[in-house]
Write a structure and sequence with these properties.
The protein is built from 22 helices and two strands. It is mostly helical and about 750 residues long.
């Protein structure tokens, strides 16, 4: 029986949500139980406490982390809700006015904006809940023999987030399109439908910006504060319960690395899909509804492929030793990539007609396409993403020479560590940029700008697996922190550290995927913006492409290149300000309660004070960077026109890619160089934990924290958000003096 695109997409979304529910039910069966239960019989602490006392402490820590994360996200989303409510009115008014008072288009765009924003918030909140729920259960599973139980628990926690987000994102997007099609039933009108749906990507990206920046400031303020006072000054271990900032640090892992990453990648999915639909809307006229929906169907096929491959890690080849952890995670990425290539071929042959026409981005011609061409473009994105991920691993894993060079540089102090780490970051951008360039050239040559959009979809096609691995890392990190705070047997922390070490490497790979896909998504959105301006102006503008040598365009090209650096400066400074407050608070508590530093203290730190500092600082500091990214392209388009916006978007894209890769990889290298030193023996050249070499590495890791977890990843959203916002308001920009802006410049 032949399946339509509707059945494939809705069926895949349902399967994804069901699979997430099944994985959650498996995790839920692991109890945080009292002393009478089997699991808690092995929970005796290192200090010889009874099982009941240790279980009570685990519950106390779990509750504190949950309440801290929950209260922060509710406060953050209260701010986001206010922004969404106000900005949706702006979207409605400006789009309606820009489309010659077409209330339907303005209303549909505003509705899709609201749906994208709320879906993004739901994704982030769901990820946080699942991560916190699973952290303590991963700790408990680490009590059992072998690595299989604890690895599977953390992996399944990631799978809940990965499959739920992809299923929910596809479902909401496609149902919205079906509703809009009732108003736009004719294929000739589907261009208006796809333009209205761009609000979905804008909503998701706006929330991603606040989630990434706010969560990143929260987690790194706590992390930096805890490290500087705890490790460097007083020499106490990471996640030691005596450190007042340790709960805030663990809360931050959930609101930044989980909720923030979830919103970020949801935004990438939504924007890539919207860009492909806008550019390929003319396919609907010659190929029909199913052919136009091919980009969404690729994501649907990806969910099924990721689901099948997940059995490799949990059932077919389960993790049985420390050496098998990183291998299992890498096999997930490689296996999904290998299976996606033939799966996409069959999807293209099944959904696309033998030949279909597409309007070119430059000129007034059309290009005739065949299914195999679309397959090549998507496959280029899939394989390109894997290459970027593996290159990122080479530069950030201590299994390879670059990170070991950084570790050795710590022998002469923190300064040389900083020099080596920054140099590594710059060098690590070379191969990913070359790969992206090749993918863009080949895709554009085959299928015009539609090919670039398909390559972006391809790079995100195994998003379910990518998110699974991304969430796995913070879950293991929190599990280790809980084990340390609960004073469990050292063997438990050793096991969770082994899980976390592999998670750090694969998290860096995930950041490489995210940056690469963001670059392709941004370029596709820029192409959609040009396509929409051409349609609005009836080919009066940009028919022959964008001339970068026009004075206004060239001027804003430089301004666009400056935006990522301004943004990075703002977010780095925000982390620094919040970290200073955290350092002062932690030191105040140590000064006022000196017995906190005793081996067995009788006093407890005031964890809530540190949580309050991170919460207040992040909510305050996330507003300015977010507002800068959102309003820069909007004001540029309104006052200076579409030529200025074109230069702005290209400049921001080029600078953001380089800066995001270098910052993320520098931070990852510093982190793993520190871990490499910590694994060294005290009699070795690197001297191990507590040595001056280790302290120099901790300084590098501390500086690298906002590099890799705040500014670097958030730059993905800078280039995507500026591009999708320009796309949504394209008609509005053109309506002002025929695209010359309020200042009427040409």
């Amino acid at each position: 029986m032949a399946l339509s695109a509707t059945e494939i997409i809705l069926g895949s979304a349902a399967i994804a949500l069901l699979w997430a529910l099944i994985q959650f039910s498996v995790i839920k069966r692991i109890p945080v139980a009292d002393g009478s239960n089997t699991e808690s019989a092995a929970l005796s602490g290192a200090s010889g406490e009874s099982s009941d006392e240790t279980t009570a402490r685990l519950n106390e820590i779990y509750t504190a982390i949950y309440e801290g994360a929950d209260s922060f996200l509710k406060a953050e989303y209260a701010v986001c809700n206010l922004f969404v409510a106000c900005f949706s009115i702006i979207v409605f008014l400006l789009v309606t006015w820009g489309t010659d008072y077409n209330v339907a288009r303005g209303g549909f765009t505003a509705i899709s904006f609201l749906l994208g924003a709320f879906t993004s918030m739901a994704s982030g909140y769901l990820g946080m809940k699942v991560a916190v729920f699973s952290n303590v259960r991963t700790t408990i599973s680490a009590q059992k023999a072998g690595f299989t139980p604890c690895f599977n628990t953390a992996f399944r926690a990631g799978a809940v987030m990965g499959f739920a987000l992809c299923g929910l994102g596809m479902l909401m997007l496609y149902v919205t399109m079906l509703v809009f099609r009732e108003y736009y039933p004719k294929p000739e009108d589907w261009r208006l439908l796809t333009e209205s749906i761009t609000g979905y990507g804008l909503g998701g990206s706006c929330i991603a910006m606040f989630g990434r920046v706010g969560g990143g400031i929260y987690t790194k303020a706590a992390d930096v504060g805890a490290d500087l006072v705890g490790k460097v000054v007083h020499g106490i271990p990471e996640d030691d319960p005596r450190n007042p900032a340790t709960i805030a640090d663990n809360v931050g892992d959930n609101v930044g690395d989980v909720a923030g990453m979830g919103s970020d990648l949801f935004g990438s999915f939504a924007e890539a899909t919207c860009a492909a639909l806008v550019i390929g809307s003319s396919i609907g006229v010659s190929g029909g509804w199913d052919a136009m929906l091919f980009p969404v169907a690729v994501s649907a096929v990806g969910v099924i492929v990721c689901l099948v491959c997940s059995f490799i890690a949990t059932d077919i080849a389960p993790v049985k030793s420390e050496a098998g952890i990183e291998k299992a995670l890498k096999v997930q990425l490689i296996s999904t990539t290998i299976l996606m290539v033939p799966a996409i071929y069959f999807a293209a042959e099944y959904l696309l007609p033998e030949s279909f026409d597409l309007a070119t981005a430059v000129g007034d011609g059309t290009v005739s396409l065949e299914p195999w061409m679309a397959w090549i473009c998507v496959s280029a994105g899939v394989v390109g993403g894997l290459i970027i991920g593996l290159v990122t691993e080479y530069y950030t894993s201590h299994s390879y020479a670059p990170v070991r060079e950084v570790a050795n540089s710590c022998k002469t102090g923190a300064a040389t560590n900083m020099i080596y780490g920054i140099s590594l970051g710059y060098q690590s951008a070379v191969i990913p940029v070359l790969v992206l360039s090749i993918v863009i050239y080949k895709s554009f040559a085959l299928c015009d700008l539609y090919g670039v959009a398909l390559a972006a979809i391809g790079m995100l096609s195994n998003l379910s697996t990518g998110l699974t691995i991304d969430v796995y890392g913070p879950v293991c990190d929190n599990a280790g922190g809980i084990a340390e705070m609960a004073e469990l047997h050292p063997s438990v922390r050793e096991k969770t550290d082994a899980l976390d070490a592999a998670g750090n490497t694969t998290a860096a790979i995930g950041k490489g995927f995210a940056i690469g896909s963001a670059a392709l998504v941004s370029l596709a959105l820029f192409g959609a913006f040009i396509t929409r301006i051409r349609a609005s102006s009836e080919d009066a503008l940009f028919m022959d492409g964008v001339n970068m040598l026009e004075p206004l365009t060239f001027a804003f090209l430089l301004i666009g290149g400056m935006i990522p650096f301004w943004f990075a400066a703002m977010t780095m400074k925000s982390v620094g300000l919040a970290a200073m407050q955290m350092v002062l608070e932690v030191q105040r508590q140590f000064d006022e309660k000196p017995h906190l530093l005793d081996a067995n203290p009788t006093e407890r730190p005031d964890y809530d004070a540190c949580i309050a500092i991170s919460t207040q600082a992040s909510l305050k500091e996330m507003i300015a960077p977010g507002a800068m990214v959102i309003f820069t392209p909007l004001l540029t388009g309104l006052f200076f026109g579409v030529h200025a916006v074109s230069g702005l978007l290209v400049g921001a894209l080029i600078a953001s890619v380089q800066l995001a890769i270098s910052m993320s990889n520098s931070g990852g290298a510093w982190d793993n160089a520190k871990k490499y030193i910590e694994k060294a023996d005290a009699n070795s050249e690197l001297k191990g934990k507590g040595s001056d070499i280790h302290k120099a590495a901790v300084v590098g890791d501390t500086v690298g924290d906002p590099f890799k977890d705040t500014s670097g990843p958030a730059l993905n959203i800078v280039m995507k958000l500026m591009a999708v916002l320009s796309l949504v308001f394209a008609d509005t920009f053109y309506a002002i003096n025929e695209g010359r802006g309020i200042f009427d410049l040409s």
